């Protein structure tokens, strides 16, 4: 049974914002010119005032030299493949400190990227700030520096606590709905697309929420490292 916690007046509630941005506004955006069918998904990204070193997954790509496809991108100082699983590639990139755009806005406001998915059409981000003020700083920085973003959702992140583990509200909602609709049954009674439609989000966003929720549950219940 979920535990409901009362918050004191000094508590600063974390805020989650979802937004989209043109592909060219992120350093990896130029890859879609050569590989229009590719999907790029960032791993959880924690900002630093001067440099961000994220990992990201590359999917839906047919190439023998994945590293070559990501060379010579504006804002990237170094990029290499770390691992591969079937047709998915885990990459590691280092960004130029003077690069100006979404990355500088994230670092400036100390906003955590919960998910970032890029296709030839656009980038879709879900970010978390320590408070509404933090998210506000990020939005103001983008406006003042002409960094185009389109905000699609803003909501408070309320932890769902149960038996010693935590899930964010969106993770818990996605996992519970998937369970109730029979997504985890064999055979499945509902598709990822149907659940995403019911939640009003993309399949990529739903997949990310389920994966992060699973990771949190496993880390809190089966792994001794958390």
Unreliable spans are: 1-11, 160-164
Average pLDDT reading:
76
Number of beta strands: 10
Please tell me the total number of domains.
2
Q: Give the helix level as a range of percent.
A: 25-40%
* Cross-sheet strand order for the largest sheet: 4-5-3-2-6-7-1-8
- Which structural class do the helices and strands define? alpha+beta
Quaternary structure of the protein: single chain
What characterizes the major β-sheet?
A: 8 strands, antiparallel
Total helices: the number is: 7
How far apart are the termini? 22 Å
Pattern of helices and strands: EHEEHEEHEEHEEEHHH
Please provide a written account of the structure.
By secondary structure, the protein is α+β, with helices and mostly antiparallel strands. It folds into 2 domains: 142 residues, no CATH class; 62 residues, Arc Repressor Mutant, subunit A (Orthogonal Bundle), CATH 1.10.10. It has 7 helices and 10 strands. The strands form 2 sheets. An 8-stranded antiparallel β-sheet has the order 4-5-3-2-6-7-1-8. A two-stranded antiparallel ribbon has the order 9-10. A hairpin with a 2-residue loop joins strand 9 and strand 10. The protein is globular, with a radius of gyration of 18 Å.
